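Q: Two folds, back to back.
A: First:
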Amino acid sequence: MQYMLSSLKAAAEAAGKPEWGSTGPTDAGHYNNWPEDTPFFKKEGGGWNTPYGEFFLTWYSQMLLDHGERILSSATSIFDGAGVKISVKVAGIHWHYGTRSHAPELTAGYYNTRYRDGYLPIAQMLARHGAVFNFTCIEMRDHEQPQDALCAPEKLVKQVALATGAAQVPLAGENALPRYDEYAHEQILQASSLNVDGSPVDREMCAFTYLRMNPSLFHPDNWRRFVAFVKKMKEGKGARRCWEEVEREAEQFVHVTQPFIQEAAVALMH
């Protein structure tokens, strides 16, 4: 805290506004406040959209970017020549994405608002170090989320895909919640194909991490769907086969692996 305040003070003095350097926003509310309940994050006349707000949020987000630069510089120097690919996890903060201020993202250090792209600077930083941009909430659809919170994971993933495309940095993905249904699998396939405005037709996610392994994954129906999902992911965005066809092909593999799957499910339960 001491070093953060010292940095803030120095930044305020450099901006010719020393009075801005003693503290952060005092009207930003608390953890469980909604954006419109706080003077700083409300859409009309909110402090986030003032010269002070721009100063503070620029400084705050730059602290995160500087930290990333330091960590990546160290990591690349350590693993240089070792054949290791460095990937950086970036949180998928989709709550209140539909608001103007994007308060949850701002508080996390991502200076992303309706009027500013906060993910392009992150992507550019990763590109400088040859790292992968690893993003989450790939399985989510906008209409599945609480509408009163204006969640928009699909729009957020699209923004990140465009930012990584502009920065020419590889994009990897993860699901945020355990999902075993074809609806979620289809969303992952769609998102990982990176079919968004302005993206090259031959661009796809470079990797995908499926979370989370637990007994439910090894339920016979879930396992069959998962095997089919993996097959479709392997085939890539050019494949146009229906789920039923792929699941029929997966049946033989499911049958052969059933004894091992039962053992895995029992082991996870204990």
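A: Second:
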Amino acid sequence: MAPNRSSAHNSLNPAESNVDPEREIWSSILQQVQKTATNKLPSNKSILVLGDNDSGKTSLIAKMQGMDATCKGSGLEYQYLMVRDEYRDEQTQCGVWILDGNYTWKSNLLKFALNADNFADTTILLVCSMSKPWDIINSLHHWVEVLESHIKSLNLDPKKLEHFREQNRRRFQDYISPGDEIEGLSAGHRNRTYSYNSGGGDSPTENERDPLPDNVLCNNLGLDIVVAVTKADYMSTLEKEYDYKEEHFDYIQQAVRKFCLEYGATLMYVSAKINKNCDLLYKYLVHRIYGLKFKTPALVVEKDAAFIPSGWDNEKKIAILYENIQSFSPDDNYNDIITVPMNANLTQKEQEIVAEDDQIFLIKLRSQLNQQVSVSSGSTPIRSTNTTPTVVKPRQSTTGSIGGSNQSTPLSGTNTPGGEGVLQSFFNSLLSRKSTSGAQSSPGMVGGSPSIGNSPRTPVSSNTSAAAAASASAAAESLRSRDVHAELDRIIEGNKQQSQLSDVGE
């Protein structure tokens, strides 16, 4: 009888026959950790953003980060997106490389964002702007050519590159529109043929795929590409200012969708200004890169919010847009239909404010201060050798005229030094009053005093009137004499004050 191998084995290894239960618990925990470790979100994924200047690359990434303020960089800019799997309570960071639009002198920087090591973990985001629709197709072709030339410079193993292309082809063909998973109506399932196991099992094994049309994924770069048409809110401005019609926007969309079919890319219209489809783009990128759930189907109803996922589109669906294109043919050259308007504002870029050098700023400030000091010193000099005496304007004198009216005498003589003009005008006024006082009567004066109000006049005799006239004349002469002496005193006092001010100034 043959010996029992298990008993012999246990006898040779007594330590294994008596396994510690605690050790078994720890080993089971380690096995579970190893199994779940493969399900963690990888941290080596990245997105490479390519596009012209002023196409909105930085603003779009900032909006997906949840920020409104943006700070545009230069050269090759690096940022990241926070990715969180709420189902498994895991999170990671997805790197974002943003290449400046002036690629002609920054070509050596692209190797840091896309190289042979991270080729399989990189997603391409091509950005073009609706603010310049006449440059959309040219911009997309330009950056694809840049990407193709860079991939050639990497000198990848042909087998690896073909493997990447096959993965890209499978992603395109295996697309399942949300809602069709249960029904199995996706294009990927229709393009498969299955053969069953010889054992009669129900699990199908993939045998082959139907070949793709000639114009679909004909330029396979081996990379997952997403095309984002930014500034979709500018379409309303194109309608108002440049007379764009619905057929123009349909023509642009069908041209971009044909481009996306050639490269197996996804198309999405976004606007960071009004936050349209920015969150949808973030969720789709996370879905494509990390395999998280995404339940939004294709969107083709709203012209400024179109979403065409990779693998959903085909020529028949694009042909629906042809029905609205009447003024031109969809096969016409893009640059012949979407041209640059005559009144187009091609300088939409805001000028950057550059601070000048500190020394230049201080020199300008010193010159301004010197000008202010010179102006102030010229208007109010601190010391002056030739001082012109200032004539103090006397108060207006009021004399009671014979007719009972008050008359003001102008006393101004600033043009003559010493106040001689004031005296001359004053004495001239006295002479004119004296000459007229003798010829006029004074009905308003009774006993040398003016009448008050409109009291009735008292009739007087000839002797009384003569006495009254003499008394009025004597009162007028006395008043004139007092005014002359007062005016002379004021002039003398003003000259003394002016001379004292001149002495103090010297």
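Q: And?
A: The chain is about 40% helix and 15% strand.
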